[in-house]
């Protein structure tokens, strides 16, 4: 198995990053505006990107510490993978450790997702630090 990992420091408290990762308003602010989600273990979050969508089962919610999903619907390579956001206090705010685990192999889709996750995590950081992210379809455009 191969995995996507990213690490970044976000200059706000873990509580604020957690809200951006666990609430519908937060997720819509950095990933895609067409989000249906609630912060409940076992719930299904739906993220639409134009005509395409992904569904994630929320498998862990530890306030200010962790959000974890299992992919239920998406392109075949995503189904069954897990996405984990681990948060740790940092002297400048929060360290986010991001993992998208369970890929079967390196592939063109894996390569695109590695890049896209970096852009969306940058959008998350921007949302947390300024109040305005750059969700789909603007994730690669920054002021």
Question: What's a concise summary of this model?
Answer:
This protein is of the alpha+beta class and 143 residues long. 27% of the residues lie in helices and 39% in strands. β6 and β7 (93-103) form a beta hairpin.
Tally of helical runs: 3
Sheet with the most strands, sense and barrel status: 7 strands, antiparallel
Indicate the CATH class: Alpha Beta
**Global outline:** globular
What is the percentage of strand-forming residues?
A: 35-45%
CATH architectural grouping: 2-Layer Sandwich
Q: Could you name the ranges where pLDDT drops below 50 across 5 or more consecutive residues?
A: none
What's the CATH H-level homologous superfamily? Answer: START domain
Give the strand tally: 7
Query: Helices and strands: which structural class?
Result: alpha+beta
Mean pLDDT: 96
Beginning-to-end CA distance, first to last residue? 37 Å
The level of helicity is: 25-40%
Radius of gyration over all CA atoms, rounded: 14 Å
Q: Taking strands numbered 1, 2, ... along the chain, how are they ordered across the largest sheet?
A: 1-7-6-5-4-3-2
Overall description:
This protein starts with a strand and ends in a 13-residue tail after the last helix. 27% of the residues lie in helices and 39% in strands. Strands 1-7-6-5-4-3-2 form a seven-stranded antiparallel beta sheet. It has one domain: 2-Layer Sandwich (Alpha-D-Glucose-1,6-Bisphosphate, Chain A, domain 4), CATH 3.30.530.20. It contains three helices and seven strands; from the N terminus they run βααββββββα. The mean pLDDT is 96. α1 (14-22) packs across α3 (108-130). The radius of gyration is 14 Å and the shape is globular. It is an alpha+beta fold. The chain has helices at 14-22, 24-30, 108-130, and strands spanning 2-10, 35-36, 44-49, 52-62, 66-73, 82-90, 93-103.
């Amino acid at each position: 198995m191969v995995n996507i990992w990213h690490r970044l420091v976000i200059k706000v408290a873990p509580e604020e990053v957690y809200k951006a990762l666990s609430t519908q308003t937060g997720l819509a602010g950095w990933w895609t505006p067409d989000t249906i989600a609630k912060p409940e273990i076992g719930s299904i979050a739906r993220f639409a990107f134009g005509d395409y969508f992904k569904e994630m089962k929320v498998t862990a919610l530890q306030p200010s510490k962790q959000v974890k999903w299992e992919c239920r619907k998406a392109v075949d390579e995503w189904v069954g993978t897990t996405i984990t956001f681990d948060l740790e206090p940092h002297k400048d705010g929060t360290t986010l450790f991001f993992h998208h685990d369970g890929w079967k192999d390196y592939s063109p889709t894996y390569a695109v997702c590695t890049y896209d996750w970096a852009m969306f995590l940058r959008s998350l950081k921007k949302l947390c630090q300024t109040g305005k992210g750059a969700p789909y379809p603007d994730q690669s455009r920054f002021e």
